[in-house]
Amino acid sequence: MNIHVEGLVAIVIFYMLILLVGIWAAWKNKNSGVMEGVDRSETIMVGGRDIGLFVGAFTMTATWVGGGYINGTAENVYLPGYGLAWAQAPFGYALSLVLGGLFFAKPMRSRGYVTMLDPFQQVYGKRMGGLLFIPALMGEMFWSAAILSALGATLSVIIDIDINMSVIISALIAIFYTLVGGLYSVAYTDVVQLFCIFLGLWVSVPFALSNPAVSNIGLTAVKQLNANQTAWLGKIESPDKWMWADNFCLLMLGGIPWQVYFQRVLSASSATYAQVLSFLAAFGCIIMAIPSVLIGAIGASTDWNQTTYGPIPPMQRDQSDMILPIVLQHLCPAYISFFGLGAVSAAVMSSADSSILSASSMFARNIYQLAFRQSASDREIVWVMRITIFVFGALATGMALLTGTVYGLWYLSSDLVYVIIFPQLLCVLFIRATNTYGSVAAYIFGLILRVGGGEPYLKLPPFIYYPGWTIEEKVHHVTKEVEYLVLQRFPFKTASMLASFLSNVAFSYLFKYLFESGTLSAKYDFLDAVVAKHSAEIMDKTTLVNKNIIGLNEMTPVKPRLSVTLAATFTRKETLTEEEDSSPESPSHENE
């Protein structure tokens, strides 16, 4: 193995820069929130709620602009038969940020939540919050693992460094500065990382375009280059329209219920700022995707026989997923490709650190503190967060070394976030009458309908064959192996999400009617969700509500229990003054 020393030096310099910025951010904000009496654990999770417009816009954009985003966009544009028409991530995630800003950012931030799971535990109880933690955790962990795996593959292509070594080193750096500074380190390093992504890729594009082996991308956009490479604009065939729409809805709506998004929303200095940051990030997602689209188009317009890569194109070597680093290495001068490599590394780390912090925040607060140790001190919660940052980071690193398998796990877990968490978020924020029975039913229905459709990347066969299913032949060009996969053309992911939503509403109203009408005795309310007035579960709920924001009359009638420790667990009055009068959920509106 011949390690390219120049590339290795460039990566070391870049990693040192990121590490120093992360440590500096932690030192700069070490006393943030102290004067206001904010807990240290909350400062780590949401940065003291004082993230400004400039830093906030960058870190919100970094929610989705990562290694998978820029590599995946280039790959879809390059792939024959797909093209730009199937590169849905830029517009899908941009619209998810717009919708998140319009409908979700304001109620979440104005109520002073600390994590995405807070409203679920407030309304459905701690046990249901624990169940919803599972798909949320899977999504964050497998996302981190997938992008770390992508980074390892990229480094191995350009500088011939061992994949395992590059993954481990990158993860350790991200874990370290996240441990030290929490969200502040994540946010400030996001600023540097997005600058590197933007400059690194844009510097590379002109050199790649001017390479003699590259045809005019304006012509290849609509004209087939050769028998193996179709026009890179791509098209959507009639049988695939519903599948295309299903995937787009998954990105647009399924991109909302993620802790990586809401930790930025909840760290904003006000609810209005949270909305503005979402809109700015949507614009940033589109801008950051442009160089990736061009690099994918360049890959589709290249006569690889004229390059050092060789006559066999990347697709026929099963390396389509690495088209971006391949273009950087074989179509750009060495010093430019190394600069672009820094951009790819930046993209990966900007996503990995925030996902690890998100997972540890949800565990420390919603599982450890609210479900098991309500009397835990702030110092104890901080230590739990630090331990889980390290543990989850180590787990993500280990899963990243599984290479192909981790992508299948990521696809399935992101689908479960869309199918299970998104409809429940709609219910918990906008439909007051839903309860734990409906939530459990929605969870079960969504899980069965989605898993029943199978997952080709995991070689998980379906046990539900939706209308329009077909058998697709997949040929592995390197090994010459042929796989036969079930392709579900029916939009079953979105159908599963809608079924989950409707089952939540239907079963909630059904059990509410059964218990309140006396058809079912109160003793059968084993989830304590409708009429059980003295259960420990409901009593715990009263400690999670600030009466100035959500009145107890909005929940099941209960006898309030005073709690010094958790009286303000979900809300802080000082963060809500801006929204107090405008919130439709405020008691003042109810009493009018």
**Biggest sheet architecture:** 2 strands, antiparallel
Q: Could you give the count of β-strands? A: 2
Termini, distance in Å?
75 Å
How does the overall form come out from the CA principal axes? globular
Number of helices: 21
Order of helices and strands: HHHHHHHHHHHHHHHHHHEEHHH
In helices, the fraction of residues equals 55-70%
The low-confidence parts are 533-592
**What is the strand content?**
under 5%
Instruction: Give the neighbour order of strands across the main sheet.
Output: 1-2
Radius of gyration, rounded?
Answer: 25 Å
Helix/strand class: mainly alpha
Mean pLDDT: 83
Subcellular location: Presynaptic cell membrane
Catalytic activity: choline(out) + n Na(+)(out) = choline(in) + n Na(+)(in)
Transmembrane segments: 6-27, 51-70, 90-108, 129-159, 165-184, 191-209, 242-261, 273-302, 322-348, 383-410, 416-433, 440-458
Family: Belongs to the sodium:solute symporter (SSF) (TC 2.A.21) family.
Describe the structure.
By secondary structure, this protein is mainly alpha-helical. Helices cover 62% and strands 2% of the residues. A two-stranded antiparallel ribbon has the order 1-2. The N and C termini lie far apart (75 Å).
